[in-house]
Amino acid sequence: MKxxxxxxxxxxxxxxxxxxxxxxxxxxxxxxxxxxxxxxRAVTLFALENNIPIDADHQQTMLxxxxxxxxxxxxxxxxxxxxxGDRDITDEIRSLxxxxxxxxxxxxxxxxxxxCALQRNMAADANVVMEGRDIGTVxxxxxxxxxxxxxSVEIRARxxxxxxxxxxxxxxxxxxxxxxxxxxxxxxxxxxxxLRKAPDAVEIDTTxxxxxxxxxxxLSYME
Length: 223
Ligand code: DC
Known about the structure:
Layout: E1 7-11, H1 18-29, E2 32-35, H2 36-49, H3 59-68, E3 71-76, E4 79-84, E5 87-88, H4 96-106, H5 109-125, E6 128-132, H6 135-139, E7 145-150, H7 153-166, H8 173-189, E8 202-205, H9 211-222
Parallel strand pairs: 1-6, 1-7, 2-6, 7-8
Antiparallel strand pairs: 3-4, 4-5
This protein binds 2'-deoxycytidine-5'-monophosphate.
Residues 14, 36-37, 40-41, 102-103, 106, 132-134, 183, 187 line the site of 2'-deoxycytidine-5'-monophosphate.
């Protein structure tokens, strides 16, 4: 059933700048911001902390136990926070361990089905900028606007390298390139809801663009 809310689907691979761009758009338009990757990360953190094996045999248990706790997403003044029950897990879901395991959790069909239902409810309740991998293809095939962002592996690794360096974390650039390429491969090759551009999405190659330019380009498409 179609509803009257406006939805902007923003998809693309890791490190393309989706979160920063989606937040800037949501702030500019006064819409809610939904980071669907954060939802998969929250389930991953839950599975790791509760020693639930990340495999097909445990996906239903993982989903049911995780859903007993309430996920809450708070977007205020351009800041996004994730709560699991009363616990603020905004930083923990970005840990190296969660990042290394999340692609496996996101490949489990039962987990995807649960997250997808939650995401559709969010888009039915409010105008949203929703970012992820399968928003334009699976979650909101009737989204009002669809954008697919791309950028070369090298530029995405360089952006991540600078971001980590600024936080005092030292990593090798070559390792980052390899990790990003591996995650792209896992996200694009899984059988359920792989990372893919929807046929009706507008593709924007952000390799030579800064955040402001991408936001301006998206807003100009919407006009
Ligand atoms: O955007 P991110 O790095 O926080 O996403 C974390 C993982 O979740 C990444 O491996 C891709 C996956 N993901 C997904 O499969 N579908 C989505 N809609 C969002 C993220």
